Here is the input.
Amino acid sequence: MSIRFEPCRREDLARVTTMERASYPADEAASAVSLEMRQREAGEFFMVARAVDSMDSSGEGARASDASGTAATERAALDADARSIVGYVCGTLASGDVLDESTMSSHDPSGDVLAIHSVCVDERFRRRGVAASALAHYVARWIVHDDTQHENDDDTTTTTTTKVRRVRLLCKENLIPFYERYGGFALEGASAVEHGAETWFDMVLDLA
Ligand SMILES: CC(C)(COP(=O)(O)OP(=O)(O)OC[C@H]1O[C@@H](n2cnc3c(N)ncnc32)[C@H](O)[C@@H]1OP(=O)(O)O)[C@@H](O)C(=O)NCCC(=O)NCCS
Here is the structure.
C-alpha cells in the first residue's frame, strides 16, 4: 500500500474522531472538541495518511469479488476508506519542556517543542508499515537543511535549522522500540503524567 501524507482538513475530522475512539481506551481518547482544536489551531502539525492505490494490487481480491457481490461491495468500501484516511499523526506546540495535561490540551504558536498527541492507524490497515512511514515523514517535516557557502571558504557547510527544536511524546512500554526505531526518539524514563490506567514513558527527539 502506498501512502500520501496531507494536512488534515476540517472535513476529515469526522473520520479521524471515529478512528480515535476505536483505537484508544475511553479514558485516553481525545474528544471531538480536542481534535477540532488541534486541527483549527495547529493544522500544520496534524497530518493524515491516505492510500494512493488499491488495497489489493495482486488481483486476488478482484477474483474473489467476482464470486461474491458482497465481497466486491466490502472491498469497494475498504478501498474508499483507505483512500479517505488510513491513519494520522497530530501534535501541538508547547513552550515548556515537560509534557503535562495542559500541554496535551493546548497549542502555543510561539513554542518550539512539538508534543505529539496521537499516532493512529485504522485497525484494518495495521501491521503494514503505515505508522512507521507516517512517523518518519512527520518528524522529517521539521528538519530544514540549509547548505551555506561560507566566505573565504571552499567548503559548503550543511547546518540544520528548524522552528521545532525538540519533539516529545508519551507512549506505553510496548511502543518504545517503535518510536526509537522509526522516529529516532530516545527514552527519557517514566512520565509523571497520569492519563488512563497504564504507566506512560517520555520519549524525546532533538532536532536543533
Ligand atoms: C501503534 C500503531 C500506531 C501501529 O500502527 P501500524 O501501522 O500497525 O504499525 P507498523 O505496521 O508501521 O509497525 C511498525 C513497527 O511497530 C511495531 N508495532 C506495531 N504495533 C505494535 C504494538 N501494538 N505493540 C508493539 N509493537 C508494535 C511493529 O511490529 C513494527 O515493528 P518492526 O518493524 O520491528 O516489525 C497502531 O497499532 C494504533 O493505531 N494503535 C492504537 C493507537 C495507539 O496506541 N497509538 C500509539 C499512541 S502512543
Remarks:
- The chain has seven helices and nine strands.
- The CA atoms of residues 5 and 137 lie 8 Å apart.
- The first strand starts at residue 3 and ends at 7.
